[in-house]
Design a protein that fits this description.
With about 325 residues, this protein is α/β, with parallel strands linked by helices. Helix content is about 25%, strand content about 25%. Helix 3 packs across helix 9.
Length: about 325
C-alpha cells in the first residue's frame, strides 16, 4: 500500500510502499478514502510517537475492508471514521466509569498506532464511528477531530438552548464551533480579529460578532448578559483570559486550543461569579458518531482544501502555515 510516514523523530514526511497490515483480533482494516490534516499532526515529528517509523493522521474516513476475529459490530463495506480516540483499555478507572476518552492507556491514532496518511489503516473496533450517507468522506474526515472536539465541547459544557455562547476564533475549529453552536440553539457570538470577518461569521450562523482588535471583548459579552460558555479554539492565552470578565455568573471558559504560554487567571476574577476555566478533550468514537449524525442532519460542514495523498507534504505545510481555509484533507484514489 502507499503510505506517508515519518521515519524518525525530527524528520520530515516521506512516501513509502508498505505491506497492507495484518488485522489482529478485535481490530478492523479500513480502506482510507480521506484523511484530514490536523495541527496535532506535528506531534509525531516532534518525537511524541510511541515508535518509528510512524504514519500520522487521526481524521480518517473510509470503508471497512475486513475485520479481525471477534469483531461483530462492523462489516466489510460499511462507511466508518477513525479519530484521535484510538481505542480504550476497558480496565482503568476512567474506562470502568465509562469515560473512555480519559483512558489512562492513551491510545491515539497516528501517535501510538499508524494513522490515515495511507491507503489502509488498522484500528480497534471500539475506535470506529459510522459515517452517515449525508456526508462525503472528505467532509466527514475533519469532523473526526475538529468536529467532535467542538461539538462535544459544547454539548458537555452545561449550556442550554437560548443561552449566550461565544466561540473564540474562526479557524479550523472555530468555524465549526460557530456552526454547531448556532444549530444547537444557542445565542451565538463569534469573536475574532478584524471587522472583515464579521460577514463570514454571520454566514456561519453567528448572531453577534465581536472584533477583538477594536472592541472590549469582556465588556461586549457582558452587554449581551454575559456568556454562559466561551469556547476557546485559539492558541492565544491572552485572548482566552480577555473573555473571562464577560462570563455570566457560573459561566465557563472551555479551553480547546493549546497556547505556548500558560493561562494567567486572577482568582478574584472567577471567585465572585463562581466561574470556571476547564479543559476539554475531544471525545470517544460514539461522540464522533454523534457529531457526524448531527452535522448530516443540520447542515454543518467543514470548509476544506483537498490534496491527493501523494502531495501530503504540501497539504501538511499548507495546514501548518495557517493559510488553509480551513481544513486540509488528503484524498486517496
Amino acid at each position: 500500500m502507499r503510505a506517508i510516514q515519518i521515519p524518525a523523530a525530527g524528520e520530515s514526511l516521506e512516501a513509502v510502499d508498505r505491506d497492507v497490515p495484518e488485522v489482529p483480533r478485535g481490530h478492523v482494516l479500513v480502506r482510507v478514502s480521506a484523511c484530514g490534516v490536523c495541527h496535532s499532526d506535528v506531534m509525531p515529528g516532534a518525537g511524541m510517537a510511541s515508535s518509528y517509523p510512524r504514519i500520522p493522521g487521526h481524521e480518517v474516513a473510509g470503508t471497512v475492508e475486513s475485520v479481525g476475529e471477534g469483531v461483530e459490530q462492523w462489516k466489510p463495506g460499511q462507511r466508518v471514521g477513525v479519530g484521535w480516540f484510538g481505542g480504550a483499555c476497558f480496565v482503568c478507572d476512567a474506562c470502568r466509569d465509562g469515560d473512555f476518552i480519559s483512558c489512562r492507556v492513551g491510545k491515539v491514532t497516528g501517535l501510538t498506532s499508524d494513522g490515515g496518511y495511507a491507503e489502509f489503516v488498522v484500528a480497534p473496533a471500539d475506535a470506529l464511528a459510522a459515517v452517515p450517507d449525508g456526508l462525503s468522506d472528505a467532509e466527514a474526515a475533519p469532523l473526526m477531530c475538529a468536529g467532535v472536539t467542538t461539538f462535544n465541547g459544547l454539548r458537555e459544557s452545561g449550556a442550554r438552548p437560548g443561552d449566550v455562547v461565544a466561540v473564540l476564533g474562526l479557524g479550523g475549529l472555530g468555524h465549526l464551533g460557530v456552526q454547531f453552536a448556532a444549530r444547537m440553539g444557542f445565542e451565538t457570538v463569534a469573536i475574532a480579529r478584524g471587522a472583515e470577518k464579521e460577514k463570514f461569521a454571520r454566514e456561519l450562523g453567528a448572531h453577534h460578532y465581536i472584533d477583538s482588535t477594536a472592541d472590549d471583548v469582556a465588556g461586549s459579552l457582558a452587554a449581551l448578559g454575559g456568556a454562559t460558555v466561551v469556547l476557546a479554539t485559539v492558541t492565544d492565552a491572552e485572548a482566552m483570559t480577555a473573555t473571562i470578565g464577560g462570563l455570566a455568573p457560573r459561566g465557563k471558559l472551555v479551553v480547546l486550543g493549546v497556547p505556548q504560554e500558560p493561562l494567567s487567571v486572577h482568582a478574584g476574577a472567577i471567585i465572585g461569579g463562581s466561574q470556571a476555566v476547564a479543559g476539554h478533550a475531544s471525545g470517544s468514537a460514539k461522540d464522533s458518531e454523534d457529531t457526524l449524525k448531527f452535522a448530516a442532519l443540520t447542515g454543518v460542514r467543514p470548509l476544506i482544501e483537498e490534496y491527493p495523498l501523494e502531495k501530503a507534504a504540501d497539504g501538511f505545510d499548507r495546514m501548518m502555515s495557517g493559510k488553509a481555509r480551513f481544513r486540509v484533507v488528503l484524498t486517496v484514489d
